[in-house]
Amino acid sequence: MHTIFVRHHNNIVIELRRMPENLRWDGEKLYQEARAIIASQLQHIVFNEYLPVLLGKTEVQKRGLKPLQSGRFQGYDVSVDASLTNEFSTAAFCVGHSMVQSKLPRLNEKFDAIDQISLHTTFLKASQFYKEGIVDELVRGMAQQAGKIVGPSVTAELPLQPEESAVWPGLGQY
Fold first, then answer.
1. Number of domain units in the chain
2. The whole model's pTM is what?
3. Residue 11 needs a FRET pair 20 to 30 A away by CA distance; which of 81, 104, 157, 174 works?
4. Model pLDDT, residue 174
């Protein structure tokens, strides 16, 4: 997902730069405007598509998480502390990691299977991603791959085991 959004950000910068009203914008302004657009698009995806599946439509509605169909939200309260508790961030970490698949499929430009890469073989080994086209193959593969159902287990392919803590301090602690 990160790769997709970084590429999308760069495409937005290109489009913003082409607009006559933005000709005086410097690189920082273009970057920040594209960043704001990406943030709003990501929020749209999370609140319209991800949360209703994760929590259920009823819970989203009950908690007031359903985005407005028109207009702007008027209920912002600066006195509300928006920080996260350690317990919440740990639970979110566990939920997210329980959805990770153990294999990364690679698909060619016609979306035909090439092979699969075991997730554990990718950590701390970035050089394998320098091969021409491999990132596109992985993005295509993961875009076609269903996520795992949220549950209490995490794939053994993630370096979250205590013996991995020397390489990734702190992991394996949850």
1. 2
2. 0.71
3. 104
4. 43
